[in-house]
Amino acid sequence: MALNAQYEAIGKGFVQQYYALFDDPTQRPNLVNMYNVELSFMTFEGVQIQGAPKIMEKLNGLTFQKINRIITAVDSQPMFDGGVLINVLGRLQADEDPPHAFSQVFVLKPLGSSFFVQHDIFRLGIHDSA
Amino acid sequence: MDYDYLIKFLALGDSGVGKTSFLYQYTDGTFNSRFISTVGIDFREKRMIYQSKGRNYRVHLQLWDTAGQERFRSLTTAFYRDAMGFLLLFDLTNEHSFLEIRNWIEQLRLHAYCDTPDIVLCGNKADLEDRRVVTEWRAREFAEINGLPYLETSAATGQNVSRAVETLLEKVMLRMETAVDMAMVPGQSGKFKDTGEFMLRSSSPAQKCTC
């Protein structure tokens, strides 16, 4: 499959759509449609899980309600299988907590005329020393 | 420097058990906390007098709080480092937060300056008696088995909040007084002009206490 020339727009569009669902507690369950039942990996704060059901279990288990998010940068690259690699750098605020930096990496895998999230790696930007 | 001891305490426990409210209540409702975003630590301070053997010591107490990162299951080792005592909270109206105490103790023993750190266990939200799911007897038994002082607290009414902090301070001061070599206790190697400064130090094996 050829490189997808629209990778930049796809990356930005996906990130906007993904976080719109994630950050609204009433919409969060709809994220299930972004993942494949088996062929999706997530690494959330170092914990690796596979498949949409387990991923949603993880996301639904998060105890905050709303999230405020400021995206600093979305960097995308076309992949040789027609997919898109996306790196997101930003800050988030869960409910009334102090804001944290975060980084998140996605790999979008083409499926027909659309994509699903094949890989998803999330970390808060907190460190072992100040 | 107008204090004799700088003491650092950490509030730990599941999200929603009332750690921030607890510390807020203890610092007389003042919320002038300082946030260090790189390590995700929020802290507030209070001065107090500690009496021992007829002498008064001026204690500068720093109370460290998480900044919500435990909701992402994300606590770095920086958080535990250099703390001298731990306020371990659960919510009396939340069974899961009580069951998680065991994990928190394990984390503490792993990351704290020694494997038997001073801990005070607090069953918080004692004012919500009608919603209580963890009995006092059950919590006391657990605390006894683990060798921890146990107090039922309420960040809302202030019940036992000061007592919990004072109980922890007594344990920590006793440990310092009985330490053969004061340099073996974290934070006693020196006092710091800038409260932001001490967090930059990385702990070296030499600082570990041998308890």
Name the beta content range of chain B: 15-25%
Number of strands of chain A: 6
List the helices and strands of chain A in order: HEEHEEEE
Number of helices of chain B: 6
Number of DSSP helices of chain A? 2
As for the number of domains of chain A, it is 1
Oligomer: heterodimer
Strand order in the largest sheet of chain A: 2-1-6-5-4-3
Name the overall outline of chain A.
globular
Q: Unreliable segments of chain B (pLDDT under 50, ≥5 consecutive)?
A: 188-211
Shape of chain B: globular
CATH class of chain A: Alpha Beta
CATH architecture of chain B: 3-Layer(aba) Sandwich
Question: Which topology of chain A does CATH recognise?
Answer: Nuclear Transport Factor 2, Chain: A
Q: Tell me the radius of gyration of chain B.
A: 16 Å
Which whole number gives the mean pLDDT of chain A?
94
Q: What would you say about this model in short?
A:
With 130 residues, chain A is α+β, with helices and mostly antiparallel strands.
Explain this structure.
The complex is a heterodimer of chains A (130) and B (211). Chain A has one domain: Nuclear Transport Factor 2, Chain: A (Roll). Chain A has a six-stranded mixed sheet, with helices on one face. In chain A, 19% of the residues are buried. In chain A, 19% of the residues lie in helices and 42% in strands. Chain A has 130 residues and is α+β, with helices and mostly antiparallel strands. The N and C termini of chain A lie far apart (45 Å). Chain B has a single domain, classed as Rossmann fold, CATH 3.40.50.300. Helix content of chain B is 27%, strand content 25%. Chain B has helices at residues 19-26, 77-80, 95-99, 101-111, 136-145, 161-178; strands spanning 5-12, 34-36, 41-52, 55-66, 85-91, 118-124, 150-152. A seven-stranded mixed sheet of chain B has the order 2-3-4-1-5-6-7, sandwiched between helices. In chain B, helix 5 links the parallel strand 6 (118-124) and strand 7 (150-152). Chain A binds chain B through residues 44-45, 47, 62-64, 94-95, 97-101, 123-124, 126-130, and chain B through 15-16, 35-40, 42, 67-69, 71-74, 76-78, 196, 199-200, 202.
